[in-house]
């Protein structure tokens, strides 16, 4: 038996719900979240959320949410920056895969966003995953195809159409960079 399984505790959602501060739980391992987001992160997050809310206002089933916990499994809880869901949650937290996830990437979060969350979101069937790099003014847009992410665009000043639920929305990445 590996030492980590023998000596390092394996935490669950029940444990997670009792913790103070901002954490994510990845397959039983607690991961401290970065300090509160800086100005550029907040600005870009707000612009993404605003645009999604505008584009979804005629879609009765879909909704954009900001920093809400997604309980993936009994030992995994993540808090994406922005998600789009097309089903009513069964409680206070999301328990089913969102249709779209946007993560705002910084130096501090790059490994988690580009690798760990990428794999979790791909495995769990998130249809679109968008990595937004505010400092570079570019976004990498991935679409799930045959259970694997395929990059469909490095979006800078592009418009990308997303087919979600019963709706189709066109997202304008140029609006993120001013």
Could you explain the architecture of this structure?
The protein is α+β, with helices and mostly antiparallel strands and 178 residues long. It has one domain (37-176): tt1808, chain A, CATH 3.90.1570. Helix content is 24%, strand content 35%. It is built from four helices and twelve strands, in the order ααββαβββββαβββββ. The protein has helices spanning 3-7, 13-16, 39-56, 110-124, and strands at residues 23-26, 29-32, 63-66, 70-73, 76-78, 82-85, 100-104, 128-133, 138-145, 148-155, 159-164, 167-172. Strands 3-6-7-8-9-10 form a six-stranded mixed β-sheet, with helices on both faces. Strands 1-2 form a two-stranded antiparallel sheet. Strands 4-5 form a two-stranded antiparallel ribbon. The longest helix has 18 residues, at 39-56. The N and C termini lie far apart (53 Å). The relative contact order is 0.14.
Q: Could you outline the blueprint of secondary structure elements for this entry?
A:
Blueprint (H helix, E strand, L loop, with lengths): L2 H5 L5 H4 L6 E4 L2 E4 L6 H18 L6 E4 L3 E4 L2 E3 L3 E4 L14 E5 L5 H15 L3 E6 L4 E8 L2 E8 L3 E6 L2 E6 L6
Parallel strand pairs: 7-8
Antiparallel strand pairs: 1-2, 3-6, 4-5, 6-7, 8-9, 9-10, 11-12
